[in-house]
Fold this protein.
Amino acid sequence: MATLDEVREEYEFLDADDRYRLLIDLGRALEPMPDALKTDATLVRGCSASVWVYPMRRDDGRLHFLADSNAAITKGIIALVLMTVQDGTPAAIGAADIEAALAPFDLTRQLSSNRTQGIPNMIALIRETAARYA
C-alpha cells in the first residue's frame, strides 16, 4: 500500500473527478472487514454514511484498524484517515496530529459537507480507542 505522502503527491496533480476515483480506490484497497464486526459498537456516530471502525491490538501492543463504509467515497476517506495511524502504538496514535496530516488534501473544500462532516468523529473514535489501550 502507498504511503500517505505518495497518495498526497498523486492527489495534488489530479482534477476533481480523478480525486474522487483515487479516494474510491483507497477504500477498495482497505483490508476486508467481516460483516460480524459491523455492529452498533463499531459504528462511527455523526457520519451521513455508515462507517465502522474496529481496532485490533497486535502482540507488540500496536493497534491495527479494520474499517468499512456503505459509501465508496466515505470508505476512501476512512482509508486516508487510517493511513495516518495504522499499526501505531496507542501513545503515538494519541499524539498524532491527524488533522494536520490530512490538511494538504483539503477535503472540506474538495468534497461536499455531507461527505466530510463525519471526519472529526472518525478521528475522535480513533483517539478514544488509542487512549483506552494506552
